[in-house]
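To whoever is on call:

I kicked off a structure prediction for a single chain this morning and the downstream step that reads the tokens threw a length-mismatch warning. I double-checked the sequence; it's 957 residues and nothing unusual in it as far as I can see. Pasting both halves so you can look.
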Amino acid sequence: MGARSSNPLEAAGPTCEPIKIGVLHSLTGTMSISEISVKDATLLAVEEINAAGGVLGRPLEAVIADGASDLQTFAQKAKQLLQESQVAVVFGCWTSASRKAVLPAFEHGNGLLFYPVQYEGLEQCPNIFYTGAAPNQQIVPGVNYLLAQGKRKIFLLGSDYIFPRTANLIVKAQLAALGGELAGEVYLPLGSREVDEAIAHILAVKPDAILNTLNGDSNVAFFHQLREAGLKPEDLPVMSVSVAEEEIRAIGPSNIAGHWVVWNYFQTVDTAENQKFVKDYKARYGENRVTDDPIEAAYLGVYLWKEAVEKAGSIDVIKVRAAAKNIEFAAPSGMVKIDAQTQHTWKTVRIGQVRSDGQIEEIWNSGAPVQPDPFLKSYPWAAALSPKQISVGTRASLLGLFVIMVLITWMAVGVGWMGSLEMKNSLLAIQATSAPGGAVEATMAVLAEQTMAVASRTQSWLVGALVLSSIAGIVACVSVSAIIRNLGLLRETAQLIASGDLTARSPVVSNDAIGVLSSTLNTMAQQISSLLKGLEVRQRQLEERSSELEVAKNAAEAANRAKSTFLANMTHELRTPLNAIIGYSELLQEEALELGEEEFVMDLASINMAGKQLLNIISDILDISKIEAGKMTLFLETVDVLNLVDQVVTTVQPLMAKNGNTLSVNCDRDIGTIHADSAKLRQALLNLASNAAKFTDRGKITLNVWKEEWEVLPVENSEDLSDIGSEFHRYSIVFQVTDTGIGMTDDQISRLFGAFSQADDSTTRRYGGTGLGLTISRKFCQMMGGDITVESEFDCGSTFTIRLPMAIKIEKEAEGDRAPEETAQQEVRSQTLELPDAATVLVIDDDPDSRDLIARCLSKQGFRVLSSASGEEGLKLAKESLPDAITLDVMMPSMDGWAVLSALKADPDLANIPVIMLTFLDDQNHGLELGAAEYLRKPLDYKRFADLLSKYQRPQK
């Protein structure tokens, strides 16, 4: 959003050129919850000033810019306001990050910014006037109040940007110095509503109070979920430094009532200036609006600038800055003054408790305006927070001591040297006097007296040097003793911390380097203790989460088992009557033809086809469920490709004729064999061919089959082929189905292989189907080391291609160390089945329709049929009659087919009787391993089943 101009009032008339002022706040984004009202307060002051005649007789024109809660946008808009709009001053910013983002623009452009929000301190810029609180006017007294209330264990929660992190550095140093304890420290992204982990951390460490430096929408989510967690203000009070009346409206008074806030102004402040301010603000913006500390700070900032400009008689930045020193203003919060040294504001500190009506009741105040101390110079424990201001005393004392010692040494040497020279001169004079022709004895006496005087003077100098050196030694001893004592205390604290006692604290007795080191060590120990506690909390949370995941895993496994059991039972219950419908409809068709009732044949055929379609749907649902559960297995065998293709063509031919399509097949008769799961490969080919027939009307469908060299991918196979891999080149067989049907778009192709998906909803309604066929077919091909690909053009047709390796090589076989039983597991062959003529067949099946159908079919082929409805009765009847063959269902109550088969093979009298498994289950290998002669899937083609048994009949001898 670009800058826009608005002139709230033009009371001064059109003849005076207005003074442009910038208003830079977030009108959109996460910080707009707070900053829009601050912008409104600024404009209210502008309107009032214009109504009173303006500034220097000129009206103010506000140029409003939206920082959009984005740092780069703030920097860009600040530059535009200064360079393009050429404003005289800018009132704006909320977060410290936004203030620092615009700072270079004001420094380079010599602009002036009035910043209305409390901040972390440790800053002083000649281009900024700070009308919000410095740390000693909000954060420090807020923590002191908590400690005075017995809240020693403090949890720090803040947004992840400059102000909360720097403010919490101050708090941690303060806690370390005053005996508080850091319970924990968590930061959330600015505006984040994900507060669950933070509240879980708070619940785990159980602090006495929370110091909250969250900003923006995060406060709304935090206080709402804090209340939902059952944490009441009387049990766990929260002291907020960025939540005022405007934020309370957004949070909801019921969610924050009872908690504490620390500011310099509340709407409930009882002054005449505040009553007028609140009345004017509500009259301008609505009775439902509220005032708060940043709103009042923005409002008074405009008036402070006005008074500075009028005092300077100019809007020149340098003159305004000089004139602003010590300016006072009767603000709604009370008398405020711009500090001449720091350009911060003297302000009264207030602590309040949120009421249920959204207002704040004052419970403590400082009594008088507090001088701003942005660098916390008056607090020894804060020395480490501003390194540029520390360690001068220590360096000065040690340097002074060194200089004194050097001077004393030089003095002693100088005195000794001067004395020795004078004595030398005196002795030379004595020598000259004692020589022949020398002076008389009186002269000797004078020289001796002079020599004594020199010696006495030298002694006096030496005594003076001794006294001075003694004094210096005492001073040095005291200084060194103090340093050694402080270093000793520091060393003892460090040793205690190193031994694991993180509660140890080093006394901070000065602002020198040792004091800074002590304060830093205390803060470090407190931080380490907090981090270790945080790690313990995280460890407990991880353990709890692991337990929850373990429970969830067990529940999921139980649900999966229940689902598998349900699907198995459901499909059995559905397939059983469908099996009867399909079987009886086939038998009735034969009987209708025999009786000449041909008019019933088509109806019976329709019933038969509908039953098979429903059965296919049930089978597809079961297959996709087994695939998703990883329980689908392969039954590999050598398959003649040409025969397989012939079977597929025979099956789909009626579907081709239904829509008037022609089918063309191109397959080399010598193409050979493929080692694969024949049932699954046949199912995939049938799916592609039937889809082509369904989506093509009076068109041409081509099935091409050929052999090509291809690098086989590793196989995702069954339980018996889990160790199979293919790392070598091998020929593959390609099956390609091409049609001239409706085709597909790129978007439809991208969704084609998803479960329950077809081209689109309209396709599903027009052509039918569940959308599972292609998904299952592709999974089958991938399990066999291949894949299905598709090429299509809308309204022109599609080509589906299956590529499968001709053989799957097992790594252990290649190495020559595969066990015989493992090889047998890969491909289990059925036993040779030979039956005598007029053989007796025992049918064991709990479904009476299945028994009846099998008996009627076999009886027509000359077999003698016995039947049993349960496994126990079947075993008894088998022992009594010793049948030539047994047909056995798997899913039966009480004793299932696997148990019956095992019992048959364990009985020497019954072990050699061939058993034919007739079931819905897809578990051929298991049946053959237990000794079954054949494994056939229901629904049976009963005529073909009878023909199969007839084929094995031999004349009795």
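Update from on-call: the warning came from a stale cache, not from the record. Cleared it. Sanity check on the structure: The chain has 28 helices and 30 strands.
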